[in-house]
Amino acid sequence: MEQEIDTQELGEKIVKVLKTIYDPEIPVDIYELGLIYDVMVNTDSEVKIIMTLTTPNCPVAESLPMEVEERVKSLDMVKDAEVEITFDPPWTQDLMSEEAKLELGLL
């Protein structure tokens, strides 16, 4: 019998990993910045992340999604990870956590 994975627990581990990845121009991690729109985990341990960038011509438009994918794939419980970039809705400062806004002096 196949072991049921705890998608909630895996989701939390993924968020921890996402919080170690920073936007190179802003000293705040991509999760607190609000760049991660959705993290989906299915029972096959496959992960899909929908994220955005601060701007479409962001200098890390190529490398950041790949870094996210690689870091998430490095988790033992993850079989596969896919990152999809979207600009709908476009990112705004409103998506940032209170913590990120404090960090950047916006509050």
List the helices and strands and how they pair.
Blueprint: H1 7-18, E1 36-41, E2 46-51, H2 63-73, E3 80-85, H3 98-103
Parallel strand pairs: 2-3
Antiparallel strand pairs: 1-2
Question: What key attributes describe this structure?
Answer:
three-stranded mixed sheet; 27% helix; 3 helices; globular; alpha+beta
Helix % is 25-40%
How much is the radius of gyration in Å? 14 Å
- Could you give the distance between the termini? 52 Å
- Spatial order of the strands in the main sheet? 1-2-3
- Based on secondary structure, the structural category is alpha+beta
Strand content: 15-25%
Order of helices and strands: HEEHEH
Low-confidence stretches: none
Let me know the average pLDDT.
91
Basic shape: globular
How many strands?
A: 3
Q: Number of helix segments?
A: 3
Report the major sheet: 3 strands, mixed
Write up this protein.
- This protein has 107 residues and is α+β, with helices and mostly antiparallel strands.
- Helices cover 27% and strands 17% of the residues.
- The chain contains three helices and three strands.
- Helix 2 links the parallel strand 2 and strand 3.
- It is globular.
- 23% of the residues are buried.
- The model has no long low-confidence stretch (mean pLDDT 91).
